[in-house]
Amino acid sequence: MARGLNRVYLIGTLTARPDMRYTPGGMAVLELNLAGNDLVQDETGTREIPWYHRVKLLGRQAEMWGDALEAGQPLFVEGRLEYRTWETEGQKRSAVEIRADFLDPLQGGARLETVEDARGQVRMRNALNQALLMGNLTRDVELRYTPQGTPVARMGLAVNERTRGQGGAEERTHFLEVQAWRDLAEWAAELRKGEPVLVIGRLVNDSWTSSTGERRYITRVEATRLERLTRGSGQAGGPRP
Amino acid sequence: MARGLNRVYLIGTLTARPDMRYTPGGMAVLELNLAGNDLVQDETGTREIPWYHRVKLLGRQAEMWGDALEAGQPLFVEGRLEYRTWETEGQKRSAVEIRADFLDPLQGGARLETVEDARGQVRMRNALNQALLMGNLTRDVELRYTPQGTPVARMGLAVNERTRGQGGAEERTHFLEVQAWRDLAEWAAELRKGEPVLVIGRLVNDSWTSSTGERRYITRVEATRLERLTRGSGQAGGPRP
């Protein structure tokens, strides 16, 4: 499998004072709700697209920032996407979360342009919302068309992560959902299961109601750029040292 | 000092087959010449700006890729800026280089748009050229105006790096040059020595002839975004763990 790349950069404002909680093992978990507007330019023109992302910060960093952050604070986040599975009432569930590695509050000042939403939450204009991913496709790309005839491609990406834990090197795989629109979607349609690709894009949220009536959320990557990686006789990357 | 962030992402084409050499200590060093066109949108409209960057890859990765790359190959590079000093004929010299941490050849194919320059070198259109930096200003920002009246701000940035070497944690500081234009330059003019800032921008090269008649080159970051970080009672980041 191609080496994994899994980086997320966000700049937005906190919609609320973050909640601190502790795992049963005593680890601090800080949940941040970050909001921003992306300026997106494509074939259809320039639009401002709002986003709301929940970001988790763990451990020492969470404790450091737990009491210092208020609603409206502009923040820079460097992080990654984390795939997580669990069981609830005998059913297997999975989710993709944004995990912050580092957090840096920005000085807002007069230059900070914001908009207020219907719930009174402050959203930063000209936010930053970027993901860079490298992995292998978990299935052939599915190309569909919206009722208006706009092509949209969906693909699954398996991103390898190698961390040094207490028991030596540990391997984890993050299963992520990627979509592409228009020209990029049509190009992507030829990509096949197993192919290694580079994805650059924005994080977007989607929600739907499950068959049991529950609201479900998914974090996807909306690709602005997709590149096929070469395999070059097994050389394509190799795992990160 | 605020924690350092030092990341560079490039996508471009190789202008030549890379040169491999070895340090006196036996470490492989691969020098890559990468070229691309950035699509830059600002107050003056949209322009395609060419760039040529030299990228160094060291050690095991250099040996892995040494024989596999040819001129014209599209590449993705994840790396950082490295500040280096040395002495030559009793004079102290310094340079900023682009150091690749990882290299991934892309499959070009029919979608790869390129232009050929006057020397017959192939340059990728719609390249990627992004730097994300966090550090402290080494001096007050200097604001000047071009003969046409365009504001340009120059600043020095000290970026901390903490690596785990054989003798434990090692600290290094990279001294980088950053510039900003127009509105961003005028805003930046109020930044003072010592302030922690976040810089997002493109890598650009500048060259001039020294007093001794030699051609000198410098790699600068042209900021597209600048943000003041808060210090928040000494909490601003702290070094990376």
UniProtKB/TrEMBL annotation, chains A, B:
Record carries keyword DNA repair: yes
InterPro entries hit by this protein: NA-bd_OB-fold, Primosome_PriB/ssb, ssDNA-bd
GO biological process: DNA recombination; DNA repair; DNA replication
Gene Ontology terms for molecular function: single-stranded DNA binding
Keyword hit for Transcription regulation: no
UniProt keyword terms in alphabetical order: DNA damage, DNA recombination, DNA repair, DNA replication, DNA-binding
A Pfam family hit: SSB
GO cellular component: nucleoid
Role: Plays an important role in DNA replication, recombination and repair. Binds to ssDNA and to an array of partner proteins to recruit them to their sites of action during DNA metabolism.
Name used for this protein in its record: Single-stranded DNA-binding protein
Organism listed in the record: Thermus filiformis
